[in-house]
From TrEMBL:
<dbReference type="Pfam" id="PF13241">
    <property type="entry name" value="NAD_binding_7"/>
</dbReference>
<comment type="pathway">
    <text>Porphyrin-containing compound metabolism; siroheme biosynthesis; sirohydrochlorin from precorrin-2: step 1/1.</text>
</comment>
<dbReference type="InterPro" id="IPR028162">
    <property type="entry name" value="Met8_C"/>
</dbReference>
<feature type="domain" description="Siroheme biosynthesis protein Met8 C-terminal">
    <location>
        <begin position="154"/>
        <end position="220"/>
    </location>
</feature>
<dbReference type="GO" id="GO:0019354">
    <property type="term" value="P:siroheme biosynthetic process"/>
</dbReference>
<dbReference type="InterPro" id="IPR006367">
    <property type="entry name" value="Sirohaem_synthase_N"/>
</dbReference>
<dbReference type="InterPro" id="IPR036291">
    <property type="entry name" value="NAD(P)-bd_dom_sf"/>
</dbReference>
<keyword id="KW-0560">Oxidoreductase</keyword>
<dbReference type="Pfam" id="PF14823">
    <property type="entry name" value="Sirohm_synth_C"/>
</dbReference>
<protein>
    <recommendedName>
        <fullName>precorrin-2 dehydrogenase</fullName>
        <ecNumber>1.3.1.76</ecNumber>
    </recommendedName>
</protein>
<dbReference type="InterPro" id="IPR028161">
    <property type="entry name" value="Met8-like"/>
</dbReference>
<dbReference type="Pfam" id="PF14824">
    <property type="entry name" value="Sirohm_synth_M"/>
</dbReference>
<keyword id="KW-0520">NAD</keyword>
<dbReference type="GO" id="GO:0043115">
    <property type="term" value="F:precorrin-2 dehydrogenase activity"/>
</dbReference>
<dbReference type="InterPro" id="IPR028281">
    <property type="entry name" value="Sirohaem_synthase_central"/>
</dbReference>
<feature type="domain" description="Siroheme synthase central">
    <location>
        <begin position="125"/>
        <end position="151"/>
    </location>
</feature>
<keyword id="KW-0627">Porphyrin biosynthesis</keyword>
Length: 221
């Protein structure tokens, strides 16, 4: 068995569709946070950006203006997660303290000890998401490693993942029994298909090709 390699973080693909998230800040770091939040599609995103000094990207992504955060305690009520990207260290510390008092998850940009979680360098290709994390130690290095991974992946890697998802959905339509034996057979068949076809081939599948692959299930292949 592989020996554990403690790194201090549990890497998860976090589903945020039921979460309300507050982002405080309006600069380049806030823009990056906002982009990733929009990709994750939480239930609600509220951005508290300064009245002046908001970068062009944040302004472009916002559909309406938001007030500057003065009363921290009043602003964070009603949220599940809070992100700060501020140049104001005392205000960031006040946000962190208020979040901890309420047992809210919080990330204070560039202050690892005041983060319940980190933002890694993320590669996105459709349904495919790959995160490189250095646990807050070297974000610039994480970005370099992510760029190397991007070059190594085929251009249609995201499409390949989408097609595997369509194959799984099609297989459930053909055989939707929920007993243990059938579930195991479906899993084993999908493993064989995923291993047999290259990423490039999976990415090139169209409706006709997917249906042909699914016919293999009916033939016991």
């Amino acid at each position: 068995f592989e020996a554990p390699q403690p790194s201090g973080s549990l890497l998860l693909a976090w589903q945020t569709k039921k979460l309300s998230i507050l982002l405080i800040g309006g600069g380049a770091v806030a823009a990056s946070r906002l982009y990733h939040l929009l990709c994750a599609k939480p239930k609600r995103i509220v951005v508290l950006a300064p009245e002046d000094g908001t970068c062009d990207e944040v302004s472009w992504r916002l559909t309406s203006s938001h007030p500057e955060a003065h009363n921290v305690d009043a602003e964070i009520d009603g949220f599940d997660m809070v992100l700060t990207a501020l140049d104001d260290a005392p205000l960031s510390r006040a946000v962190y303290t208020a979040c901890k008092d309420r047992r809210l998850l919080v990330n204070v940009a560039d202050v690892p000890p005041e983060c319940d979680f980190y933002f890694g360098s993320t590669l996105r290709r459709g349904a495919l998401s790959v995160m490189v994390s250095t646990n807050g130690k070297g974000p610039r290095v994480a970005a370099r490693l992510r760029r190397r991974l991007e070059k190594a992946l085929p251009d249609n890697a995201g499409r390949a993942i989408d097609n595997v998802g369509l194959l799984r959905a099609g297989l459930r339509k053909k055989e939707n029994a929920g007993d243990k034996e059938t579930i195991e057979r479906r899993m084993e068949w999908m493993i064989r298909v995923s291993d047999r076809w290259s990423l490039a081939q999976l990415g090139e599948m169209d409706d006709r090709m997917r249906e042909g692959v699914l016919e293999g299930w009916e033939r016991g292949e």
